[in-house]
Design a protein that fits this description.
six-stranded mixed β-sheet, about 10% strand, disordered N terminus, disordered C terminus, binds adenosine-5'-diphosphate, binds magnesium ion
């Protein structure tokens, strides 16, 4: 297994674990397309009925033309009044069709408007109540795709496809019914190529879904193989293994080409046959051949044959439309699936009568937590953070420190026990109230594509420019911001590319401005560049003053001076005390400390990083 395979497998597992977890929360079952459009079903049905009448009206001019012919070519003298009557009926048919089409389109577009509004409102509501941790595990791109693109993809189907399908079905049936009243034998003959064409089309689309899945799978295999090939290129070159990765890639590519060719050539054979069978030329040929026979045998009149010519063409045209419509329906139902999944996002409970925390003491009361409902990542953690004190979490990587920190920010609710602020369970605190009490700076800082000033002011909407600048100064980022051409009005990612450390300091400025009395700092300096690191440390010191601080620390200085250090191991707090106490205890912390000192004995102990202890 290559490194890429392993990391891919890891990602897949994490994802699955997370999804399981989501299922366990108060997640609703995902709903399909039919369910999503339920609120506008009445409107759609109405539009389709109107559309059906429009399709009938479309036949009127054709029939009128035939009637005119009958009148003009008949044996009786031409009756002017009747000619005009027929002409008026034809014109009325055309006018009625235009009006009906307009009404049907208006109804569907109003319905579409309602649906888009309804879906976006429901999505916004749902996502607004989703646990923050849920976003942690998701790509913003996926969410955007569902909210913007997928909701948009349903527009076409609601606005056009259902009415198109109605027209494509009503028109040929009505035309055929009319022709049957004229001569059922010739009608049957005309029906033959039509039925063959439809059957071929049906065969072409049968199994389309499975084929599409195979197709996507093949494509995915190529993607994986090419990512492996490109990512691993330095490794394989170094170890002279270039043949292996390359073979996987070319194998995937060859399989894809074979697969695609078989599928497409099969499709092409069927579809070119059906295209020929359903082509106007074929219809005309059949009608001409059979019609000549019928007319010469005196079974039907020449005028009736004209009707067959005219309506025969009307019949076949909509079939192609049905093919496209099926495709659109498929696209829309895939899109609806993604939207439905988002709508099934678990939500955090909001209590009807929220309580206000009394003070800012934090209490983890026998807290347990599991992401997947099987393995407890935290198990009976008891910890108290007194107001205005610093608590440091240390312990091996994966021991549960970040999870504990996130529970305090209500990224998730604990599986067992409770987290309390000022004596009140987080579940009983309204979320805006909660985030007035708790601020956090995490490693993966998210900045919005907005001006730097706006990004900082998120901490306190309505803050003045002076307040923003004061926060930026305290966060040691003011000078850097001034270097941008537009200063504080520089838009993140457009006018400014911020380094990880700089983004971190912007988020510290945000937290400073928010001025929450409780602060959670998780691995805040882990990815910072060396210059940033000292600045971040200073910024953090400013942030810590007078607050209740929970910090996952990287620096000895923070740990040494902390009011309490909690050593977390496999989801338990195994040691708790001040730096000196823990050294005396001679346990995990003391051991790690000693190892640390031996590893880097020459570095000034107040500034060097204790990665091993902290992770
Ligand atoms: P630490 O911060 O101490 O390194 P974490 O709290 O990040 O530890 O992780 C604790 C355990 O929980 C690890 O085994 C990790 O794999 C798992 N874990 C962390 N985040 C998630 C997540 N979003 N979904 C599933 N498992 C997770
Ligand atoms: Mg962590």
């Amino acid at each position: 297994m290559s490194a890429t395979d392993i990391s891919m497998a890891g990602m897949a597992n994490t994802k699955r674990a997370v999804d399981d977890h989501v299922d366990e929360q108060e997640a609703a079952t995902p709903v399909g397309f039919g369910e999503l459009i339920r609120p506008i079903r009445g409107k759609l049905v109405a539009a389709c009925i109107v559309q059906a009448f429009a399709a009938l009206a479309a036949l009127v001019p054709f029939i009128a033309v035939a009637e005119l012919g009958r009148e003009l070519l008949g044996d009786q003298p031409v009756d002017d009044g009747r000619l005009w009557a027929i002409a008026w009926v034809a014109i009325a048919g055309v006018a009625a069709r235009i009006v009906l089409l307009f009404i049907a389109a208006s109804i569907t577009h109003f319905a579409d408007n309602d649906l888009q509004l309804d879906l976006r409102r429901r999505l916004a509501d749902r996502l607004g109540r989703a646990p923050l941790g849920w976003f942690d595990d998701r790509d913003g791109g996926d969410i955007k795709k569902a909210v913007v693109d997928d909701v948009g993809a349903m527009h076409h189907v609601v606005g056009h496809t259902f009415t198109d399908i109605t027209a494509a079905i009503v028109t040929p049936i009505a035309a055929m019914a009319y022709l049957f009243t004229i001569d059922w034998r010739l009608s049957l003959i005309v029906l033959v190529p039509f039925l063959i064409g439809v059957a071929l089309y049906a065969r072409q689309f049968a199994g389309y879904r499975d084929k599409m899945e195979d197709y996507n799978r093949s494509l995915e295999e190529i993607n994986v193989a090419s990512v492996e090939f490109v990512q691993g290129i330095s490794v394989v070159k170094t170890f002279g293994e270039s043949g292996r990765a390359h073979r996987r890639f070319s194998k995937a590519a060859n399989e894809f080409v074979d697969y695609f060719w078989n599928w497409v050539s099969g499709m092409l054979r069927i579809s070119s046959t059906s295209d020929i069978v359903l082509s106007p030329l074929m219809t005309l040929t059949v009608i001409a051949a059979a019609g000549t026979w019928f007319v010469s045998s005196d079974w039907i009149s020449a005028v009736d044959l004209v009707l067959f010519f005219l309506l025969g063409l009307v019949m076949t045209a909509p079939i192609l439309q049905l093919g496209y419509a099926m495709n659109d329906l498929q696209t829309a139902s895939d899109a609806a699936g993604r939207v439905g999944t988002l709508l099934a996002t678990p939500t955090l409970s909001e209590v009807a009568e929220p309580r206000r925390p009394e003070g800012n003491a934090v209490e983890f009361d026998e807290v347990s937590f599991s992401y997947d409902g099987r393995r407890n990542v935290l198990d009976g953690v008891a910890l108290r953070l007194e107001p205005g004190t610093v608590t440091a979490l240390v312990g091996p990587s994966g021991s549960g420190k970040s999870t504990l920190a996130k529970l305090l920010c209500r990224f998730w609710d604990p599986t067992g026990g409770a987290v309390r602020i000022g004596g009140v369970d987080l579940r009983n605190i309204a979320s805006d109230e909660l985030y007035r009490h708790v601020g956090f700076v995490f490693q993966d800082v998210q900045l919005l594509r907005a001006s730097i000033a706006e990004n900082i002011a998120l901490g306190r909407p309505g803050a003045s420019r002076d307040e923003v600048i004061a926060a930026a100064r305290a966060a040691q980022i003011h000078d850097r911001i001034e270097q941008f051409a537009d200063g504080y009005d520089t838009v993140v990612d457009e006018g400014a590319k911020l380094s990880g450390g700089e983004a971190q300091r912007v988020s510290i400025a945000r937290a400073l401005l928010a001025d929450a009395p409780i602060l959670v700092l998780d691995e805040a300096t882990a990815f910072a560049d060396p210059e940033s690191e000292a600045a971040i440390q200073d910024a953090l010191s400013n942030l810590a003053v007078g607050r209740t601080l929970l910090v996952i620390a990287h620096r000895l200085s923070t740990i040494v001076e902390a009011d309490q250090i909690a050593v977390v191991d496999q989801g338990h707090v195994v040691e708790l005390g001040r730096h000196g106490d823990l050294l005396d205890l001679d346990g995990l912390y003391a051991g790690q400390w000693a190892a640390d000192q031996r590893a880097e004995p020459t570095i000034d102990s107040t500034t060097h990083r204790t990665q091993e202890v902290a992770q």
